[in-house]
Each structure stands twice: as C-alpha cells, then as structure tokens.
C-alpha cells in the first residue's frame, strides 16, 4: 500500500507520551490529575491510562479546532483511508452517521434508507427533519437474516420519489454486502448524496479479494466503527469525507462531547499506525484465520458456517471474518449461545438459527486456544443436542415487507404518547422503534401504523421467548389520540 505521508508517525500518541514524561503540574481537567486517587481502578488500569487521560491543552490540541497533533493525526488517517478529509469519532459510528445525515439532507427533503439501517440512522433522519423513504430489504428464506436492498430498483426509486440523499449499509451486521459500485454510480448520476454505514467493515479493504471500497469509489461520507474490527477502544470510529463541501465537521459537534477522550483518540492513532505498517499482512492473516476457524467448525459433526454462496442476490459477497454458525441438529441459536456462555465463550449475536461470531486482529496471538475451546463447546452440544431447545423455524424476526414506505419526519420526543398493551395497538401509530434484540431490521418504525400482522408476529416472538426492544414491559408506545 502506497501512502503520501509517513504513516509510521503517531503524532497524538507521541504528544501524550511526552506529556507523561514531562511530569507537568496539572491545574486543569480532569480531576483525577493523572490517576492519584485510591480507587479500585487506579490499580486495575495501571498508571498509563490515567496519565494519558488529559484535556485539550496547548500541547494536546483541540479536536474541533485542530491545529497541532490532532490535525496531523487526522491528516495521516485521511491518507491511510484514501479520503479528502478524515475525522476521529469519540461517540461511535452512531455520531458520524447522525452528523452525516444532517450534512446531506435538508428538512422535508427525502432520504432513501434501507430498512435494516441502524437506530442511529433513523434518529439522524428525525433530527434532520427529513422524510425517510424506507427501502425494503430481502430476507433469506432459509436462515431468516437480512440480505440487503435490490440495487436494481434504486434508479427507479430515486426518480419516482424525488430522492436527495441515501444511506447504504455496507456490510450488514451479518457481514453481507451488495453491489456498492453500481449504487455509487447511480447516486452520482442523479446527484444523490450518499452516506455509507461501513460500521462493520473497516477491515474489508485489506482482506484479500479486492472487495469494493466505497471511499476509493468516491462515496460522499463513509463511517467506519473501528472499535468493532480495527482494534481501537470501544466507542471509537472514523469518518472519511470525500465531498468536502459538506458541513460534516461542524455537524459532529451536535453529537459528541466537547471534552473528547484522549485515550480513545490515541487508540485510533495507534490502530491507524499499526494497520498502515502491515495492512496486507494483517488482511492475509485474518483471512487465513477465518478459513482455519471455519474448517475446524465444519469438522465437528452437524456444524458448519455460512459462506457467500449460501446467499442469493442481492448479496455480492461476505466478510469471511464474520462467522455465521449453523447446525443441522435443529438446536436453537439462543441455546447454542447459552451453552457457549456457560463454557466461557461469548458470541456477538444469537438468533433462532444463526449464531454470529466476530473474528478480528486481536485473536491472532491466541487463535489456537480460541479454536480449541469453540470446537470443544460444539462437541459438547452435539453430544447433548437432544436435550436442548430447537429452533422455531416458523418464527421470523422480520415482517416480509415488499412495499416502499414514506415516513414524514416528526420530533417524536415532543409528541403526546401512551403505552398500551399489545392487543389494543392495532391501527395506532407507533411512537418508538420496535425491533428484535439484538439489533435487526425494525419491525415497526416511529410513524408507522401497527398492523394486525405486526401484532400477530410480536405475540409469536414473545411466546417463543424472544426479546423485543420497544415492547419491554408488555406495552407498546403509540401516539396519543388527538
Ligand atoms: C450497522 C451498524 N451501524 C452503525 C452502528 C453504530 O456503531 P457504534 O456502536 O460505533 O456507534 C452499529 C452498531 O452496532 C451497527 O450495527
């Protein structure tokens, strides 16, 4: 990989290390003054983290007015990503997606959103006062997971609905991706601004196989959640902006603290430096680890992992590091995850039939042990599968939604709402998102009518023990009657 800048530099990490060495008198925030308090965390975290937790000073620059080490660190990040501008995000990809939406759409304009979009995207659209044109996503018939939107329909939808901006999810939570190149071309042709939610895909450009990179293809704004797969601390993410006319940097201030955490930002600087030094090596090692892990699973009777060719259009490919574990004994994914947990293994997400696991660079030094423990757990389940709950194949977490829905945007938080038992909600307008946990495709979005089909599906899911966000206490929040 060729860069224009010297990617071995770590401007932010270097300044923080120097600050620590200078043992300065701290008459500024934060109040722990470098970790001199006697709490359980003082010892658990060691002195390093406390020492590096400082505030915006002359030496440490300012995130929203960067003129020093933060400017340099973000410029190096931009070069690494191949972007015109890059931003450190300290409130997750969520902050970047919301700021991105505010940057591409004006009140009452229309933005095209796939139904499997993350909650932050729906909240961003609400804050922007825009109208959401909700694009249905295909659901896999067998495995009941979302596959993505039909890119072949996008040109027609843009023209028919007067779309000004769009959000694309690339890849999905399950690691599936569609034809982003065609999508970017269509958006460019119609001057539709594109925000790509690449929260789960920071590492994709470095895996073997020339996976399309929306930043290189010129998408306006691309947001990557680096804490998910790139090795930085939880809550860190990055944004790559190719369309510098958009007010992305200013809009970020609506969604982030004015006291950005230096340990969080330093972890982004360090992760960028590490990937830049050996991106091809890391990408190859990750792909080899994913193959080794998948093969080990397939060698246990009754188990396998899903691959790209298990899925039909609109899936164009699958991230090999996102492991989708299935079994032919009919054991429910929830039961598999529970047994794993009892055996000390934490997975990312369980559904009726599929258990999702994330492999990442932090595994590489310990992969042998990880593989052995997972294989042992699978063997244990295979030996005892008769006693375990079975997957309810007739229950899907998703409503087959073939229609495009247009939702007017409203400040839902200021509307009068009431909470009603499920049975009384048919025909009412939902005031909150209802979706199966962990985050899937929302069954109902704020502003959508609760239909008889939704009520029937929710009853089934809850009877089967499913957990539903927006239906926590047996009640649904709907708009109060006028
Ligand atoms: C598809 C998708 N986009 C965005 C986000 C938000 O990322 P973050 O947790 O970094 O705010 C998530 C979080 O899980 C996600 O799954």
CATH architecture classification name of the largest domain: 3-Layer(aba) Sandwich
Q: Please give the alpha-carbon distance between the first and last residues.
A: 60 Å
What's the CATH C level of the largest domain? Alpha Beta
Mean pLDDT: 94
CA radius of gyration: 23 Å
The CATH homology group name of the largest domain: Type I PLP-dependent aspartate aminotransferase-like (Major domain)
Bound molecule kinds, no repeats = pyridoxal-5'-phosphate
CATH topology of the largest domain: Aspartate Aminotransferase, domain 2
Unreliable sequence segments: none
Q: Residue share in helices?
A: 25-40%
Number of domains: 3
Order of adjacent strands in the largest pleated sheet: 1-10-9-8-6-2-3-16
The count of β-strands is 20
Strand content: 15-25%
Oligomer: single chain
Helix/strand/pairing category: alpha+beta
**Tally of helical runs:** 14
The geometry reads as globular
Largest sheet: 8 strands, mixed
Features:
binds pyridoxal-5'-phosphate; eight-stranded mixed sheet; single chain; Molybdopterin biosynthesis moea protein, domain 2; globular; four-stranded antiparallel sheet; 482 residues; Aspartate Aminotransferase, domain 1; alpha+beta; Aspartate Aminotransferase, domain 2; 3 domains; 14 helices
Describe the structure.
The strands form six sheets. The chain has an eight-stranded mixed beta sheet with strand order 1-10-9-8-6-2-3-16, sandwiched between helices. Strands 11-13-15-14 form a four-stranded antiparallel beta sheet. Strands 4-5 form a two-stranded antiparallel ribbon. It has three domains: 11-278, Aspartate Aminotransferase, domain 2 (3-Layer(aba) Sandwich); 279-387, Alpha-Beta Complex (Aspartate Aminotransferase, domain 1); 414-479, Molybdopterin biosynthesis moea protein, domain 2, CATH 3.90.105. The longest helix has 37 residues, at 262-298. The chain contains 14 helices and 20 strands. 34% of the residues lie in helices and 16% in strands. The chain is of the alpha+beta class and 482 residues long. The relative contact order is 0.12. Helix 1 (11-21) packs across helix 11, helix 5 (92-104) runs parallel beside helix 6 and helix 11 (262-298) packs across helix 13. The radius of gyration is 23 Å and the shape is globular. Strand 2 (110-114), helix 6 and strand 3 form a beta-alpha-beta unit. Bound molecules: pyridoxal-5'-phosphate.
């Amino acid at each position: 990989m060729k860069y224009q800048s010297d990617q071995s530099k770590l401007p932010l990490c270097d300044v923080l290390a120097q600050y620590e060495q200078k043992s300065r008198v701290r008459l500024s925030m934060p109040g722990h003054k470098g970790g001199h308090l006697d709490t359980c965390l003082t010892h658990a975290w060691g002195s390093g983290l406390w020492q590096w937790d400082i505030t915006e000073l002359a030496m440490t620059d300012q995130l929203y007015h960067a003129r020093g080490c933060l400017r340099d660190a973000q410029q190096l990040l931009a070069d690494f990503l191949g972007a015109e501008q890059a931003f450190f995000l300290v409130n997750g990809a969520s902050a970047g997606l919301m700021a991105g939406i505010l940057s591409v759409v004006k009140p009452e304009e229309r933005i095209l959103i796939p139904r499997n979009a993350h909650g932050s995207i729906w909240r961003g659209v609400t804050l922007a006062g825009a109208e959401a044109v909700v694009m249905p996503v295909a659901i896999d018939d067998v495995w009941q997971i979302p596959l993505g939107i039909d890119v072949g329909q996008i040109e027609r939808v843009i023209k028919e609905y007067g779309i000004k901006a769009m959000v694309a999810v690339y890849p999905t939570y399950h690691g599936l991706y569609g034809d982003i190149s065609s999508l970017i071309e269509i958006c460019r042709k119609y001057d539709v601004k594109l925000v790509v939610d690449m929260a789960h895909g920071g590492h994709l450009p470095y895996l073997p196989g020339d996976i399309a990179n929306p930043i290189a293809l010129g998408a306006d704004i691309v947001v990557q959640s680096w804490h998910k797969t790139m090795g930085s601390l939880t809550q860190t993410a990055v944004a790559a902006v190719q369309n510098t006319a958009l007010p992305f940097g200013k809009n970020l201030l609506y969604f982030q603290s004015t006291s950005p955490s230096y340990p969080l930002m330093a972890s982004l600087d360090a992760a960028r430096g590490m990937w830049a030094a050996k991106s091809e090596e890391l990408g190859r090692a990750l792909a080899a680890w994913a193959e080794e892990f998948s093969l080990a699973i397939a060698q246990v009777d009754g188990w396998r992992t899903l691959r790209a060719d298990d899925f039909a259009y609109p899936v164009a490919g699958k991230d090999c590091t996102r492991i989708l574990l299935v079994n032919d004994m009919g054991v429910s994914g929830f039961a598999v995850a529970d047994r794993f947990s009892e055996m000390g293994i934490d997975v990312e997400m369980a559904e009726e039939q599929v258990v999702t696991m994330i492999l990442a660079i932090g595994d590489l030094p310990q992969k042998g042990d990880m593989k052995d423990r997972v294989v042992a757990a699978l063997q244990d389940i295979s030996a005892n599968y008769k006693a375990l709950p079975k997957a309810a194949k007739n229950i899907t977490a998703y409503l087959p939604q073939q229609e495009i829905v247009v939702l007017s945007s409203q400040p839902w938080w200021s509307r009068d709402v009431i909470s009603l038992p499920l049975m009384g909600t048919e025909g009412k307008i939902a005031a909150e998102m209802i979706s199966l946990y962990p985050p899937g495709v929302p069954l109902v979005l704020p502003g959508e009518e609760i239909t008889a089909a939704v009520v029937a599906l929710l009853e089934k899911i809850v009877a089967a023990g499913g957990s539903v966000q927006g239906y926590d206490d047996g009640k649904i929040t709907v708009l109060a009657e006028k």
